[in-house]
Design brief:
Alpha-D-Glucose-1,6-Bisphosphate, Chain A, domain 4; 8-stranded antiparallel sheet; 6 helices
Length: 394
């Protein structure tokens, strides 16, 4: 048994020794292959990373190129515009130089004389806004006129001209009945509004609505019992884009108080503009004093020019013709008052008939309505006639 084991061990040793070299060669070959595969995988991964990075770089280059192209186009356009501007400036400078040369030649010949520029007009108020367009004007004997463009829609402006809750915010506490013949009550009492103590509008004013067309025209009489003043006020409004044009006419104002009424209305309009823009309104007494002296000059200049222009006409007008016009005006005023009272009565009768649902009441209401329309037309015609007579007297 021991011999057999020895023989088997001998042959196993020889077989192992014979297979040693091929086995070692095979093992070494497998190690090299595995090492190459691992290295190749690493290189592939690095190459993929490089490709991704290169793609990003290419995209950035593309974006940069597009931006640069747009920038070049814009720059070229700006250069073209600048060149055009320089060309225009050069042409204007050449024209100006030519004009200066021509003027110098004319001055040398004595054809042109140079005078000093007119003195700069003083600013009316201590504001940065030019107010020359806001000034009121004297358009006739005892008539003043304001034209303003207010920064609000016509509905809101009309509310400030008529509504009892808006009137105190810029004019005076009171009410205006929005109908023909409606009562007008305005309280300008100085003891209730001490800031207005230096203004002529410091009494209780009452009157009647003589004409009204909503969102267009409002006219009413202006009666001041304290000063025995009877005059007329008219507002005309119209849309001007998002703003509202307002024309105020105040007629039959005493000539010695024109400047005061102008200054008062100017101040009231400034306050109204501030209310409409939700800004701080000026102090009444301060603004009134600022504009008063300006209107003293305006009225003095207007009176001088009007007197100089009207002197020849007045010289040729006989006293008899003047008296005839005055008489016709008195008759027209009387007729106007009578028609106004009649129109008021007709409105009351129509209001009573509307409560009656009978057919007879409807016919009577229709008849009275036609009569009221005729009276209103006659009143409008009389109003124009009275204004024409006023102009003739002036």
């Amino acid at each position: 048994m021991d011999g057999i084991i020895a023989i088997l061990g001998f042959w196993v040793f020889w077989i192992a020794w014979l297979l040693k070299k091929p086995l070692m060669a095979y093992i070494e070959q497998n190690k090299v292959v595995n090492k190459d595969v691992s290295t190749l995988s690493e290189r592939v991964a690095q190459l993929e990373g490089s490709i991704v990075t290169m793609g990003k770089d290419i995209q950035e280059v593309k974006d940069t190129s597009e931006f640069a192209h747009k920038l070049l186009i814009d720059s070229a356009q700006q250069i073209a515009d600048a060149h055009k501007l320089l060309t225009n400036n050069a042409q204007q400078m050449a024209d100006a130089s030519k004009f200066v040369t021509t003027v110098q030649k004319e001055i040398a010949k004595g054809v042109v004389t140079i005078s000093a520029p007119p003195p700069e007009q003083p600013k009316l108020l201590t504001t940065s806004t030019c107010l020359i367009d806001d000034l009121g004007k004297v358009t006739g004997d005892g008539t003043i006129r304001f034209e303003r463009v207010l920064p609000a829609r016509i509905e809101r402006v009309w509310q400030y001209l008529t509504a009892s809750d808006c009137l105190p915010q810029w004019l005076a506490a009171g009410t205006i009945e929005q109908r023909f013949g409606g009562k007008v009550e305005l309280n300008f009492k100085a003891d209730e509004t001490p800031d207005k103590a230096h203004c002529v509008l410091d009494h209780n004013i009452h009157g009647r609505v003589t004409f009204i067309e909503p969102l267009r025209t409002l006219s009413y009489s202006w009666i001041d019992p304290a000063s025995n003043l009877e005059s007329n006020v008219s507002f005309q409004v119209s849309t001007q884009g998002d703003q509202t044009a307002v024309v105020l006419t105040h007629s039959q104002v005493p000539s010695d108080r024109l400047h005061e009424f102008l200054a008062c209305w100017h101040t009231h309009f400034d306050i109204l503009k501030a209310r409409l823009t939700d800004s701080v309104a000026p102090v009444f007494s301060k603004r009134f004093k600022e504009v008063l002296q300006t209107y003293v000059a305006v009225v003095a200049t207007t009176v001088f020019i009007t007197t100089a222009a009207a002197a020849p006409a007045m010289a040729s007008t006989s006293n008899e013709a003047y008296q005839e016009i005055q008489t016709a005006r008195s008759h027209a005023l009387s007729k106007y008052d009578a028609l106004a009272r009649e129109a008021d009565d007709l409105k009351k009768q129509i209001a009573e008939l509307k409560r009656d649902a009978s057919s007879e009441a409807a016919r009577a209401e229709d008849r009275l309505g036609k009569q009221l329309d005729e009276d209103n037309r006659d009143l409008t015609n009389l109003d124009h006639e009275i204004k024409d007579l006023d102009k003739a007297l002036n």
